[in-house]
Every structure is written in C-alpha cells, then in structure tokens.
Design a protein that fits this description.
Length: 497
C-alpha cells in the first residue's frame, strides 16, 4: 500500500497541510487563514492558539480529502514563518502573550539601545545577523520586559520560548504532557542567539538580552526524528523542521554551492547556498544556516530578506480596494504599457536587505495626473523585481559567484508579467519548477529523509522538474534607466521616522 509524507506549512497569513507522494507530487492540500492583529502602528501579532487550532484542522482536512489516515503517513515535517516569537507556560501550554510577528517593529528601541555598544553589527561575528527588529532575540526581551507573568515564568523556569516550528512540534508531540521542546539549526540561526560556527546558543548574547537559557529549545538537525505525534495524528514521527525560506531552498534541490532560489510570498527571500562554511556579508545580507541533515555538516547560505512583496498586493486589495482579489493585479497592471514614470517603494516596515533601515517608510514617487490604478498596480509588481535585483547584486559581490539562472517559487510566481519583468531587470533566466509549493515540499523531503522514505538527496534532485522559463528581453540601456530610477526612489524613503 502506498505511503505518504505530510508537511505542515505555517506561514504569515495562513496554515496549510500538504501530503506528498514519493515523486514529490502533492496528493492533497488544505489551507486556512488566521487573523492579523495590529494593536498599534508597526505592531503585528498572531494568536498562537488560533494557529494551533488551524493546524489541527488542516491536517485532518488534508487526510480526509485524500481518504487517508495516520497509518498512511510515514513522517511529518514542519516549515514555518521564521522569527515570529512565542513565550508560553510549559505546564499549561498557555501563551503569556500573542506571537510577535517577524514584521513587527516594536523592538526598535531595544535594538537601538543594544547598538550603542558595538553598532548595528555588534553580534554579527557570532550570529551572522545585524541588530534589527526582524529577529526573535529582541522580541523575547520585549515580552519579558512588558509581560510580568512571562518574566515570573522565566525566573521560575516555567516559561518556554519558541518560533512557530517549536510551538507546533511541542503541541504535536504532547504539549504540556511531554511535548518535545526543540528547534532546528535553520530556525535557531534566525533568533540572533545562536553561534553559527558551533550551532549552540550563545550565552554572552543571552546574558546581554536578559534571556534565561532554560527558556530556549534544544537545537537539532533539520532532518531527524524528534518525537512521535500524540495530537491530531497518531504515532507519526515528526522528523523534519526548516524555516520557510530554507525549506524552499531544500525543496528546489539547491544542494550545490552557488545554487540560489527566490521565494515570492508575503515578503521575498533569496537564498544562495555557500557550502559548509558561513560567509560573513559586507553588503547587507544575512548569513544563515540553510539546513543540516542528520550527522552531516551544516550547509550555510547568504540571504537577502525583503519585507514586503505579496503583502503589497494584499495592501492594494484590502486598504486601497483597487482590486478584489490578489490575482486581479496582473490584469490591472496589463491595462498600461509601462509604469508611467512612477516607482512604488513599499518600505512599510522599514527597508530590509541590503539597506537595513528601520527609519524608512513607503513612498510612491513620480506621480502626475496621467497616472491610473493600472500604473500603480504595475509599479507595485515591479517593486518586488527591483528589490530582488538589489539583493542579487549584494550576493554576487559577497560570494564572488555570478548567478546564471534563478529558481523561483511562492504565490507570486503564477504572475507572468512579474516573472518576465524579473528576468528582464536581472538579465538572467527565471525558472519555475513543476511543484511551485517548494516550501512545504522541502519540509516533506527533510522529514522523509530522516525515516528512509527517500534514501538520499540525489533521489530528491531527480524529482525536480522545470515547468516554465522566462528569458530576458530588454535592452541594457532600458534596464539601467529603470533601475537607476528605482535607486533614486529608494533614497526618498530614508530618514522618514
């Protein structure tokens, strides 16, 4: 009888469960959105209990749709929105506070305070990251400083910290009744608390941030059996854990040094495999752990993180209401020949890579009476492509590797207009694989490898198939003109706050 691997893909806006067969093809999918909570400007929260309820619901729904039960599933993998921070009571399983989402900027003051000694790169030598509101460490500190119950719990050794991967693994393996408290190296590398070389928690940084090490999960490989499910699924090994962007890299089979992928989701994230050695960026990129399979050495990446990509389309839909559904953006953008001379820089949460400017805010520049909603839609799509080029240039400078093609995935890759413009502005082919949901696939691959469902990475590479390719079709002169306009627009966003 056929067996399958399940992947839980817990993202910024929704949770989905996908079930994959041995060829890496999805046989079932179930998805559910959760609420975005905005208590104040630039604060973003999620309800961890709502996410856990939705997770249970989509897992059962995906099984039901495929007419499967727990006995048909050999392993489950987790992939998650990274950096989103939860602190909860180990005895009751109750969060002390909502999850603080990666986009949230409330820790700006904490980061500025920390940067007074040693600057923005104070911890970079250890953790590969600048001081920024993006990462989990300062978020934990904010919770401990502002939620008295959490502080008391931490002092008594009763409080647990986790990003969403840790929270879900803990719940799936029993929660308050023996739940396993772990995180993998890829997620740990996004906390600003893990030493990149030793793959262990850095006690100095924990001390500076006032975080008791007893709160922190055990750091484990990305592919290994962590425990068996006791909730929702019966006795299925939980054996894969990867942050969403690293999971997409793994699902795209970027196993060789120099291979890169870009994921177009709520934000946009480009990762370049740099092999078994971490490369410290001099150009505003992050050094991160890509993955670690069992006892094999860790694989490192350079990453360019863009805060707002698909989220800009959602903003046009929900706030400006110029489209009814996200997929309408392409048709609206096609009503015009070009951007009409406008640029839209979506620095809603400041600028991430390669700028790291929390003082930036979003702008639309070049407006005239000629501009229509079509031009705004087109400029919104182009923004994602321009931001990707900024990141790619930084990557090539840091690594010395010249990219020859870009593998792409995520929700926005169904947009042909955006993908063609991306190829044009980068001047390299853009390639979409057969399975566009590579994030969930990567988590499934990590889980399946740990239990021998797949024997090795060569088997996974053979599953990868190209579906579509976009080839550059723009003159060098036009490419440079457009990109120079973008750089000028970015300057207008700075020093706003």
């Amino acid at each position: 009888m056929a067996k399958y691997v399940a992947a839980i893909d817990q993202g910024t806006t929704s949770t989905r469960c996908m079930i994959f067969d041995h060829d890496g093809q999805a046989v079932s999918i179930a998805q559910k959105e959760h609420r975005q909570i905005y208590p104040k400007p630039s604060w973003v929260e999620h309800n961890p209990l709502e996410i856990w309820e939705n997770t249970q619901e989509v897992v059962l729904s995906a099984l039901q749709k495929a007419e499967l039960t727990s006995t048909d599933v050999v392993a489950v993998g987790i992939t998650n929105q990274r950096e989103t921070t939860i602190v909860w009571d180990r005895k009751t399983g109750k969060p002390y506070y909502n999850a603080i989402v990666w986009q949230d900027m409330r820790t700006d003051t904490i980061c500025n305070e920390l940067a007074k000694e040693g600057g923005q790169d104070r911890f970079r030598g250890w953790v590969g990251l600048p001081l920024a509101t993006y990462f989990s460490g300062p978020k934990i500190r904010w919770i401990l400083e502002n939620v008295p119950e959490a502080k008391r719990g931490a002092q008594k050794g009763e409080a647990l910290f986790g990003n969403i991967d840790t929270w879900l693994i803990w719940q799936l393996t029993g929660g308050p009744n023996g739940g396993v408290h772990v995180t993998d190296v890829s997620n740990a590398s996004r906390t600003m608390l893990m030493n990149l070389e030793t793959l262990t928690w850095n006690e100095n940084i924990c001390d500076v941030l006032g975080i008791p090490p007893s709160m922190l999960p055990q750091i484990v490989p990305s592919s290994q059996v962590y425990g068996l499910t006791r909730n929702t699924l019966d006795n299925v090994p939980v054996s894969g854990d990867l942050g969403d962007q690293q999971a997409a890299l793994f699902g795209q089979a970027c196993f060789n040094k120099g291979e890169a992928k870009n994921t177009y989701g709520t934000g946009c994230f480009m990762l370049l495999n740099t092999g078994n050695q971490p490369i410290q960026s001099r150009n505003g990129l992050l050094t991160t752990v890509g993955y670690k399979i069992g006892d094999l050495p860790a694989v490192y990446c350079l990453e360019g993180s863009i805060a707002i990509a698909g989220a800009l389309v959602q903003w046009l839909r929900d706030n400006l209401k110029i489209i009814q559904k996200s997929s309408d953006i392409e048709a609206l953008a096609r009503t015009v020949e070009d951007n009409g001379g406008i640029y839209f820089v979506p620095a809603f949460s400041g600028l991430f890579a390669p700028h790291w400017r929390s003082d930036a805010r979003g702008v639309i520049v070049g407006l005239t009476r000629y501009i229509t909603s079509g031009h705004i839609a087109r400029a919104a799509l182009e923004a994602t492509a321009y931001q990707t080029r900024e990141v790619l240039e930084a990557m090539e400078t840091d690594s010395g590797v010249k990219l020859t093609a870009l593998k792409v995935d995520g929700g926005m890759v169904i947009n042909d207009l955006l993908m063609q413009f991306q190829a044009d502005i980068l001047n390299v082919p853009v390639i979409r694989p057969h399975v566009a949901e590579t994030t969930a696939l990567g988590a499934a691959y990590a889980a399946g490898l740990a239990v021998g469902y797949w024997q090795n990475q060569d088997e996974l590479r053979n599953n990868w198939k190209m579906l579509k390719q976009w080839v550059p079709d723009m003159s060098e002169m036009e490419r440079n003109r457009l990109y120079n306009g973008w750089k000028k627009a970015v300057e207008r966003t700075l020093n706003w706050v």
